[in-house]
Predict the structure.
Amino acid sequence: MSEPGTEALQWEIGEARVTRVVELPPLALPGLLPDATPEAVAPYEWLAPFVDEEGELLLSIHCLVIEVGERSIVVDTCIGNDKPRNLDFWSHLDTNFLERFADAGFDVERVDTVLCTHMHIDHVGWNTRLEGGKWVPTFPNAQYLFNEKEWAHWKDADDPTGPVFQDSVQPIFDAGLATLVASDHQVCEGVRLMPTEGHTPGHVSVVVESQGESAFITGDCIHHPCQIAHPEWASAADSDSNQSSQTRRDLIDRYGDQATMIIGTHFPAPTAGRIVRDGERHRFDY
Ligand SMILES: [Zn+2]
């Protein structure tokens, strides 16, 4: 029996397929979006799957696997097991994420690409796993792509959440599996990065395009669907809240009332939908 909120979801975009593999079921993180109080989100009934009974925002921790042609691309690698973290609820996790990954039909040995939208604690964790007291790549045959701007920021930064860069990014460089890329990098036919800065200095999102259909994988530029109605609601984790708000406004302009499927990196099920106009604002249509 799988825990509620951990089911693998899957979407087809032309001939590409995106699968959600959950590490942690939805959890409330009060204060992450300080403006999104229970009172402020209450008027939006369409937010029901994404808030708890108290009206607190729920966040899912999952990775997304893109399959296109022969390629298997893992987007964001969650928190990881055994990692010492300054956030108690994410420290020294012991989840069965790798089992779920296998149950979803994937083989860590056959993943050819790993990409991280940014280098926060909950996006790079499974880049590595602990083996014999050392952090080794979880995906031993993959090329790991990092945006060079994001890397330049974090390589010398003090991360208040723990030694994230040291145990989840640097070992990938040491193993010779890391490649630095530009923020508009074309990963392969049908998959490209798009710069969506503001949450972090080098944050990127991922665009999937196949046979006239498209999807946009958010990363954390949109943490929660409530920001589709209120792009000005910044996250306490945003490095530049003015820039992150502008990024969200631009995305809503770009994707509002379009066919592009928006797949949320932290959106609990149903996780994917479209941005549609709703009076003076927009909402998530799923
Ligand atoms: Zn995140």
